[in-house]
């Protein structure tokens, strides 16, 4: 059966999805996708996966896609970042049986994407992108889609979208910000750019940006004419956004933790989700913020959630009639609601510095440093600097590691085969050789086993050829 394309793909495979959960690194994992689907999401993306790592690492594939089958988690689009057509397509071919489409990330604006040369930092390389999408469209059994950021110029953005459509893209998600608009400098997404793209292409278009509640979704569809709307941060702060509800934060946390029990994920993902869900409440109960940061088990996180619930319920019981939310919030802090990211001036005030003082002290300060050659560091790196004043974060000063001859990972400095430990172990076992640098002594142990194998053989050094084979097989099977 030929794969569906364009409108037919959106209607039949994606079931005319209007409400979409964005691909988010370490945040749109299976448990969160299931929670979002329970509360109105009609289509979800996986976290952004690195095509080269997905291709070479079976554990990475299993942890991110090949885990326990979950029929409720469809329709599903798997997103990859990549900059090589062959690598991208080979990785996509390993994923295509587990999803409904493959998405190429052309929207990530972070410094890691700049260093890795992928995401929004490929948007000027149209020849490369054409080759990637043409090859994927030819080889894959599922459609290829793209998520992009806009150029400052609407005309160039439209031509960019038309190029991707012509190459074989079957659905386009347009984030209405440029790659420079991120963190405290994000500003408002341009729906005008999205509307222009929607009018210029014949494939389905999703909009991304400025989505904080269900009314924003409806307004975006009305103004731009897009097929669906994608949410990232709005969904993280309120997973019931697409239902048009604002539930209690601890109820969403309890439901999420229940799903995680069935579909486990790293504790760091869980903690990050609860920091988002509880954002406003943790400004009030700072002690619980510290406890959440330190807790080491899922049960411990559930205990913190119960404590947060008790404190909020006590606060509700003591609430006076006519009392209104504080800090300019639309709802009381224990209700799921958007987080309005402060701009540069507000962020400077939060940190007690003036807007002209050194710029923005946000979590992306290090990225701004590399872009503007300033001396600001992220909070995490500032802490490391306090512990070690001589520590440098200059990428040019990092030690250059020699690569393994086999897989490209850092090799052992004293490895006799110039390999990493994993590759060295395989070769040393296969060749019954020693590598003192990695502490692998297959040859030495084998020779010792020959002497120990039988008293008769120690006395009679003339061991038969058949006996040598038996000894070798016995030794290797025992892991010697």
Automatic annotation (TrEMBL):
Recorded GO cellular component terms are: cytoplasm; nucleus
Q: Which EC number applies?
A: 1.3.1.88
Taxonomically, which superkingdom? Eukaryota
What protein family is recorded? Belongs to the Dus family. Dus1 subfamily.
Under what name is this protein listed? tRNA-dihydrouridine(16/17) synthase [NAD(P)(+)]-like
- Residues in DUS-like FMN-binding domain copies: 21-295
Name the top EC class: oxidoreductase
Q: Which gene encodes it?
A: Dus1l
* Alphabetically ordered keywords of this record: Cytoplasm, Flavoprotein, FMN, NAD, NADP, Nucleus, Oxidoreductase, tRNA processing
């Amino acid at each position: 059966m030929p794969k569906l394309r364009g409108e037919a793909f959106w209607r039949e495979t994606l079931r005319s999805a209007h409400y979409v959960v964005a691909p988010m690194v370490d945040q749109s994992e299976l448990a969160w996708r299931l929670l979002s689907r329970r509360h109105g999401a009609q289509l979800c993306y996986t976290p952004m996966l690195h095509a080269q790592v997905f291709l070479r690492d079976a554990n990475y594939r299993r942890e991110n896609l090949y885990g326990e089958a979950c029929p409720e988690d469809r329709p599903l689009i798997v997103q990859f970042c990549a900059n090589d057509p062959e690598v991208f397509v080979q990785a996509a071919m390993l994923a295509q049986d587990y999803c409904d489409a493959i998405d190429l990330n052309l929207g990530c604006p972070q410094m890691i994407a700049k260093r890795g040369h992928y995401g929004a930092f490929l948007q000027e390389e149209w020849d490369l992108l054409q080759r990637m999408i043409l090859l994927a469209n030819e080889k894959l059994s599922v459609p290829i889609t793209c998520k992009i950021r806009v150029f400052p110029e609407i005309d160039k953005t439209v031509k960019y979208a038309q190029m991707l459509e012509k190459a074989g893209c079957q659905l386009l998600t347009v984030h209405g910000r440029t790659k420079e608009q991120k963190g405290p400098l994000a500003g408002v997404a341009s729906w005008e750019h999205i509307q222009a793209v929607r009018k210029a292409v014949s494939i389905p278009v999703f909009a991304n940006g400025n989505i904080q509640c269900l009314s924003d979704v409806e307004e975006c569809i009305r103004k731009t004419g897009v097929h669906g709307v994608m949410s990232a941060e709005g969904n993280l702060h309120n997973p019931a956004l697409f239902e048009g509800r604002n539930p209690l934060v601890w109820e969403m946390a309890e439901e999420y933790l229940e799903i995680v029990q069935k579909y486990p994920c790293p504790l760091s993902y869980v903690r990050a989700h609860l920091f988002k869900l509880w954002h406003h409440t943790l400004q009030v109960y700072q002690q619980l913020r510290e406890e959440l940061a330190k807790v080491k088990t899922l049960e411990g996180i559930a205990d913190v959630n119960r404590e947060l619930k008790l404190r909020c319920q006590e606060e509700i019981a003591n609430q006076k009639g006519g009392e209104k939310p504080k800090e300019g919030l639309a709802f009381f802090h224990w209700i799921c609601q958007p987080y309005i990211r402060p701009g540069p001036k507000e962020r400077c005030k939060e940190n007690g510095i003036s807007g002209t003082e050194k710029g923005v002290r946000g979590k992306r300060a290090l990225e701004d440093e590399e872009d503007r050659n300033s001396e600001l560091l992220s909070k995490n790196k500032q802490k490391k600097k306090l512990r070690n004043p001589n520590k440098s974060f200059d990428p040019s000063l990092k030690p250059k590691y020699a690569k393994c001859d086999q897989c490209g990972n850092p090799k052992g400095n004293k490895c006799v085969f110039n390999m990493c430990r994993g590759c060295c172990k395989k070769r040393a076992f296969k060749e019954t050789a020693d590598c003192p640098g990695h502490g692998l002594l297959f040859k030495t142990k084998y020779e010792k086993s020959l002497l120990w194998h039988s008293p008769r053989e120690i006395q009679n050094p003339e061991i038969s050829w058949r006996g040598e084979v038996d000894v070798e097989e016995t030794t290797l099977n025992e892991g010697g």
